[in-house]
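WARN retry 2 of 3 for item q-0093 after timeout on previous attempt; input resubmitted unchanged.
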Amino acid sequence: VQTCALPIWPGNVLHGGKRQPQPRLDTLCDAWCLHLAACASGASTTSVLLGLDGVVHLRPLAPADAQDALRTLLAHWLQAWQAPLIVPRKTACAWLMSMQTQEDTDIADDKARKAWEGGYELDGERQSTPELQRLARDFDEIAALVHEWAPRLYGPLLLAAHCGLPTQDAA
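OK item q-0093 returned
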């Protein structure tokens, strides 16, 4: 039995414009967890996220793979309860998405810094999240954590997320 989840996201699900669209990982995290849970239960699930600017889909995972991914996320979550794990979602996803296309740590750091600190007419994640303001003042304080943890936390989502509707052979 194959199932399909169709959450509608009230914002953008793509990044990079029409020339090089990429799934916007920071908006897909909740859907990713639900997708993993559905696949882990044995339901062959394709999740399709509809946003204002396009469509992103997550292909079905084998139950064992989804269970492993859930176990890994849970282990990271439990670790973060022992000591704060300062890996802000938007900042980490901006770094990881940039590393996928640029493969240059300096460029990826600049994108992550902008996501964290903001810029011209753009509030950064630090300004919009009061609890993070207490933990780090600037990107340099969290850069090493972002480099280490972004691939662990969001790498599997990056590999699973695809732009557009699923094709018959990919589903």
